[in-house]
Write a sequence for this structure.
């Protein structure tokens, strides 16, 4: 939804929907706030001034506002309003914010995996309810990308891209843009599927790897990729909403913070494709 069309009422409605599902009447945990907390601002600009803002991602072009509203089982889940890929277009999303480094040998590992599954299902349910209410979600982002694709059409670049992202709505939207700009783009929606794609020829020239993936996460995919001589030098762009630094991920060639604008994305992929040509 264009920022000029977004209102404080949209935000309050989205918060209401989130809280009803995250804190059902049967639970004994109270939400940290209600939508009434946001009644004051008369304009969306005034409301955004009060919302916590993630300045780190703005290096790549997108704005991201979030509230740590949690849920009755996990306090760190976030309500998100973000500008993604297209300037001045905003979407509601849920960030499960559960990418803690819990090892498989930890005594509560099984419970942790069950909680992550619960958070993922809850976030999908909240976002589905937003769509039903006519609120902007990443499904609208996919439709917007597909509408932009014919306008942004370019010649064949002879570059193969593997896009690894468990959010298929975003992945299909991005693929439409990549294909329009002359890239051969394949999608994998899990780490395991990414490894299957990388096991066959031809290899991609660039891998865009989401950091947060169910099951085999981005770090595990990266480690496996670097351990295999066949893929050890393959350029990898890590895409994440987490606060990771390139210094903490020395095996990646570039990092983009979500939500990014599309020009930094295409510029980085083009640079990595050139890097790959020099490595051959």
């Amino acid at each position: 939804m264009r920022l000029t069309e977004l209102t404080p009422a949209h935000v309050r409605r989205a918060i209401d929907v989130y809280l009803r599902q995250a804190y059902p009447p049967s639970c004994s945990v109270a939400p940290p706030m209600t939508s009434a907390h946001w009644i004051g601002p008369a304009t969306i600009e005034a409301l955004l001034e009060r919302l916590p803002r993630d300045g780190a991602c703005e290096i790549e072009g997108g704005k991201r506002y979030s509230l740590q509203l949690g849920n009755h089982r996990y306090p760190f889940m976030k309500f998100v309003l973000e500008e993604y890929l297209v300037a001045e277009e905003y979407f509601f999303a849920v960030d499960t914010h559960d990418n803690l480094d819990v090892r498989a040998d930890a005594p509560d590992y099984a419970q942790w995996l069950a909680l992550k599954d619960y958070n993922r299902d809850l976030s999908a349910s909240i976002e589905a309810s937003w769509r039903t209410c006519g609120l902007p979600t990443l499904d609208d982002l996919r439709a917007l990308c597909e509408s932009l694709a014919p306008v942004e059409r370019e010649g064949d670049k002879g570059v193969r891209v593997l896009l690894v992202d468990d959010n298929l709505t975003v992945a299909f939207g991005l693929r439409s843009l990549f294909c329009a700009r002359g890239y051969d783009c394949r999608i994998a929606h899990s780490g395991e599927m990414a490894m299957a794609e990388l096991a066959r020829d031809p290899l991609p020239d660039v891998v865009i790897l989401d950091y947060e993936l169910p099951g085999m996460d981005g770090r595990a995919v990266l480690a496996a990729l670097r351990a295999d001589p066949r893929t050890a030098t393959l350029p990898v762009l890590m895409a994440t909403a987490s606060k990771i630094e390139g210094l903490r991920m020395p095996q990646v060639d570039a990092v983009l913070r979500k939500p990014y604008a599309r020009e930094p994305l295409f510029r980085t992929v083009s640079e990595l494709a050139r890097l790959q040509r020099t490595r051959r």
Notes: The chain has a mean pLDDT of 92.
